[in-house]
Amino acid sequence: MDKLIKYIAGEATDAEKKEIEALLHTDAEIRKQAEQLQAIWDNAPESTVNQVDTDKAWQNIQAQIGISNAEKSAKITAKSVKVIRKKRTRWRTWSRVAAVLCLGMGLTYLVYNQYFKGEESVSLAESSGDSIKNLTLIDGSKITLNKNSTLNYPQKFEENIRKVTLEGEAFFEIEHIDNQPFIIQAGKTEIRVLGTKFNVSTHKKDTVTVTVEKGKVAFYPSTQKRKKVILTKGEKGVFSAKSVEVIETKNQSLNTNAWRTKLLRFEDAPMNQVAQQLNDFYDLEITVSESLKNCRLTAKFSEKSVDEVLETIGFMFEVKVEKLDKKIILTGGNCTP
């Protein structure tokens, strides 16, 4: 964030200008943030800014939210991308910004949990509600972030490694770069890749699931790298925090990326499996009766509501649908072994 503010204030070096302009070109959220800060800067009279006791301004902000000088970072309005930077001693620029923020923002809130780590900036992308977020990182890697998920990633990767942290679920298309592997910290695991396409999910408690669409990844517990499992196209790895093991299987589901494509596919799938995949997709609790165990579904549903899907299933197998809030029970069924 320091570089962005310096850019707006006209104090950035040529190298910093090029870096910021590249980010503004590729990241819509950073463009929004820049526009907002630019408006604040433009609307703050220079004379007023110069008259502000910025040290006192920072102290007042800290007192409002009950933090110490050692815990500094700013979160400016509730937005899906927040840029956080760890401490460097550039108080001249920061003092001016503190004044502008205090005068013009009416800060929504500030979060001081980490501050300035050398030259590295860290961005936090969030996808909430029913929205899905698409990101392109500085190395060209593309990430689709599922709803209720967050990705923590640096503005500039280290020379010999690219590392991000995921909470929730995301689909990764990683650019291959020699001698600079891409590592994802997900729960109590790490996924190491050179260049590939794969899905990572941490939505289920104490479980991390990696499904590879293309290429190869190494999947292992963070504290026990010797337990790594190599996954290739069509394979799935499931980590359990209880056993601290990664179990490798073939990916039997056609719907790993349904959250991204909005297409549900079933080919001769047993109804209990269908119910589980509908649960994952629609965030419901669907159960099937014993009488439906012999029913197998072959169908495709593109951008259909759960009611439309259940209506089709009900028509095909003479199924009765009982609803209670988010719980749905399927009973009946006219299927022969």
Q: What order do the strands of the largest sheet run in, or round the barrel if closed?
A: 1-2-5-6-8-9-12-13
Helix tally equals: 9
Strand content: 25-35%
User: CATH architecture of the largest domain, please?
Assistant: Sandwich
Question: What is the straight-line distance between the termini?
Answer: 63 Å
What is the domain total for the residues?
Answer: 3
Dominant shape: globular
Taking the sheet with the most strands, its summary is:
8 strands, mixed
Radius of gyration (CA) equals 25 Å
**What does the average pLDDT come to?**
77
Poorly predicted runs: 46-52, 64-95, 103-120
Count the strands? 20
SSE sequence, one letter per element:
HHHHHEHEEEEEEEEEEEEEEHEHEEHEE
Structural class: alpha+beta
What CATH calls the topology of the largest domain is Jelly Rolls
What percentage of residues falls in helices of 4 or more residues? 25-40%
What's the CATH class label of the largest domain? Mainly Beta
